[in-house]
Amino acid sequence: CFDQPDMKANFDMTIRVTRDARDVDNGDDNFQVLFNTPLKDGGYSRRSLQGGAILDEYIFEVTPTMSTYLMAWVIGDLVAQTSYVDGGRVKVSVWGTPEHANDLSDALESCVKILPAYEKLFGIAFPLKKLDLVAIPSFEAGAMENWGLITYRESSLLVSAEDASDGDVMWATTTVAHELAHMWFGNLVTMEWWNDLFLNEGFAEYIQYIGTSVAKPQYGADKLFPILTLQNALVADSFSASHPLHVPYEETLSGIEIDGLFDTITYDKGASVIRMLRSYMSQGQSIESDHLLSVDPFVTGLRSYLSEYKYENAKSAEFWSAMAKNSPPVDGVDLIESMRQWISRPNYPLVSLAWKPGTDLSALTLSQVPFLRTGTHTETCSDADPGSKWWIPFTYITKEGQGGSEEGVRSGILDTCAGAEISIASREDYVMVNPGQSGFYRVNYPQEMWARLGAGVKSGELSSVDTSMLLDDAYALVEAGELEVGTLLDLALAGSQRTVAATGLSSANLTSDYQAWYDVAYVFNSLVAKLEGSGSGSSCHDAMETFVGERVSAAIADYGLVASLGRTGGRQIEGSFQHRLLMGSLFSLGVRYGDAGVSNLAQQSFANGVAVHPNLRYSVFKATAKSGNTGYGQVLTKYAQAIDADEKEKLMLALGAVDTEPLIQRALALVMTPAIESMDVRAFVARVAGASELGRAMAWTFLQENFEPLYAKVNGGTDVQSSRLAGLVSRVCSGFSDDARLEELQVFYDKYSKWIPVKTFHKIEESIRTNKAWLAKNEAAVCEWVMAQQN
Q1: Alpha carbon distances (Å) from 179 to 115, 118, 658
Q2: Among 188-192, 501-505, 725-729, which stretch is predicted with the lowest mean pLDDT?
Q3: For residue 404, what pLDDT is reported?
């Protein structure tokens, strides 16, 4: 048996299990044996053995032709909820341990909606007679797409009506949708080698938003893609040590190299580039429209690709060839050539707008250059060098040309280093490129245009998604030295001043200002953290924290959050899904920055044993854990007693989100005990590091002193080749900003390089140097800006 993706086979499985007859005679016996395929007719038999034992034999149907990594079996005490697709053609069961018997229905309802939608989307029926989704206690990964027998971490599948937050439910739904997408992308058609892993994971990451829109259209999933997927990819792909989607074969020959490919680039950039291509080919049609499942040219190409290579392997070149041959032509574009740079090279372009000379500020030109977080001064674009530029399908809106960011979108192509033009109607008009953030690139504007866009942000004329994008771009541009930090702060202030009345987004709207506040919070939190990490702490750190707290409290008051929660004692949050996400985010910020009304509600609810709405619970638990030893002990006790996976995870993360030395020591002392399961080690230690600069320093010391036993706990031994802990090292160390930490990191890497991919090491180095340069350039300007707000 060769465990390589291109060596497919059919598997004929028989499983024999010896059990104690007394267990079998128990009336509550829930013992199950599951495999990729169902049992053959007459495939189960039992016979008695000497000594009071029995032998059960299970003979399963032969699998389809598939890669070895997709074969799986599950044995244990399980209960299920079951439904059927297409009149019984496919039996769908969601399994969990008996204590979770009531937490299976949400995943089942999602699955039976998504599976037939995918069959229609891809034009190929699911080829198995049954599909099992199984929640596994202490499961390391989020999920694994074994064909016909998908396994999940409990928090990625189970949904408790009492304990699951809106974020928990969405995570479970998107994870179900992601793994179901793999039944076609990965299982039916498999990448030939790991260097094209994005053909599996990038597509599943994109398609999951389609599945989520089918299962729960009230989520407005496509409007959440930028903040949940695309913006993560833009950050990860801004390093000089990044990697392309299609990785050179010679860089994927070791286990540690292959393991390292399961990263944000493969998943999130892969999904984002696919989304950009689909948006271009489909002329901006929403994934939620009927157009998607009927005449979408992108889908036409997908169907041809899947049909041509089903039960086989394919390379990325074969995918693009299938798309080009079978998709209706769009503007005569050569898809293979146009997408080459997006797939074969790392990073992405910065699109810059400049006033066209001699036009009296009525027209702008567009140009491109490769973007790096360290700056574009070393990067060039040459039309004579195809490898230095991208084919960029861009879109834009103008203030005069549309009545809101959803309408009046215009488009163009930038496939040279410079040359595309945009005209505006007046000196007061603005232009904003990439509305809805459908393209995978960043955008910079002349200073006057940033000011006009800021006015559109504050007034609510620009959408929540577009506000989020502008903030995300501005933050990255400041980091790269391409924009003054005062411009970013002005924009963040404008975002925080968006009112309910201005945006017109009531609690009943499908969309909310959640996306805008997601990046307002990101900018403010990041700047506060940078100032805290400035040597012994910046002179204006406290002033910045106070300013942010005032902006948060103003938003809490504008939304009437405390009064609304007070009507139900915090047990309910009124409004639509995205509005409830926003209320949970504002509540969390209120706890973080000490809003009196929110902090009082958080403290009272835990002390009085009130089961507040799940969207608020993490913040309540965190406030209690941070209050001192007594509160920490109360949260720890509740964590030890929790059964629901989502509730237990919130409590665990709250135990890590402390910021005083005694409590940080208490938190880190839990890591090597059974209290923190191996699957949770990385998230827990990262939470400690992310809670404060002191926590970051103490977590780093902990890693240096305990890395080998920690590696053994996470991976089951030190003889296993895995890069799992490399990501934790990155999350802990990437926030540092001084040379002493760089020296410590080098010593650490020299010692543990066999477990840390070299690209990960270089990214951490780059982050520390970038942070140091950021403070040298921007700290004084931030302090000056903050002080000006107090006058």
Answers
A1: 11, 12, 35
A2: 501-505
A3: 44
- Beta carbons of 771 and 736 less than 8 angstroms apart: yes
Does residue 285 contact residue 299 with C-beta atoms inside 8 Å? no
* Rounded Cα–Cα distance for residues 594 and 542 (Å): 13
- Output the pLDDT for position 403: 44
Structure token pair of residue 647 = 């509730």
pLDDT at 128 over 80: yes
Provide the pLDDT confidence category of residue 612 given band limits of 50, 70 and 90.
very high
Residue 36: other Cβ atoms inside 10 A: 26
Tokens representing 41 are 């007719």
According to DSSP, the β-strands at 149-153 and 130-136 are parallel
The sheet with strand 79-85 has its strands ordered as 79-85, 90-96, 130-136, 149-153, 143-144
Query: How many other CB atoms are there within 10 angstroms of residue 459's CB atom?
Result: 14
Q: 6 in helix, strand or coil?
A: coil
Active site residues: 179
Residues 6 or more apart from 583 whose CB is under 8 A from it? Answer: 559, 561, 564, 573, 575, 615
Which regions of 391-484 does DSSP assign to beta strands (E)? 392-398, 410-414, 418-423, 431-433, 442-444
Q: Are strands 363-371 and 418-423 parallel, antiparallel or unpaired?
A: antiparallel
Cα gap 138→41, rounded to integer Å: 33
For 290, residues 6+ apart whose C-beta sits below 8 A from its C-beta are none
| pTM value surpassing 0.85 | yes
575 Rama class: left (phi>0) / alpha (psi -120 to 50) / beta: left
Left if phi > 0, otherwise alpha if psi is -120 to 50, otherwise beta: which for 361? left
Q: Which two tokens stand for residue 428?
A: 């007061």
Greatest C-alpha distance within the chain: 97
More confident residue, 289 or 264: 264
Separation between Cα atoms, residue 527 and residue 519, nearest integer Å: 12
Q: How confident is the model at residue 336 (pLDDT cuts 50, 70, 90)?
A: confident
**Pick from 405, 4, 437, 393: nearest CA to 193:** 4
Spatial neighbors of 684 by CB under 8 A, at least 6 apart, are 652, 653, 655, 656, 667, 670, 671, 676
Pairing verdict, β 149-153 and 143-144: antiparallel
Beta strands in 50-178 (DSSP E): 53-60, 73-77, 79-85, 90-96, 130-136, 143-144, 149-153
Q: Considering only CA atoms, give the Rg of the chain.
A: 27
Residue whose token pair is 């702008």:
364
Cβ-based neighbours of 140, under 8 Å, separated by 6 or more: 153, 678, 679
Can you give the pLDDT at residue 401? 62
Q: Which residue do the tokens 């009046």 mark?
A: 408
At residue 502, φ and ψ (nearest 5 deg) are -70, -45
Contacts of 662 (CB under 8 A, 6+ apart): 629
Q: How far apart are CA 61 and CA 546, in angstroms?
A: 65
In one-letter notation, the amino acid at residue 342 is W
Do the beta carbons of residue 206 and residue 271 sit within 8 Å?
yes
Q: CA dist 3 to 6, 66, 71, 784, 787, Å?
A: 9, 11, 11, 60, 61
3-class SS of residue 85: strand
CA distance 582 to 587: 9
Q: Are 479 and 523 in contact (CB under 8 A)?
A: no
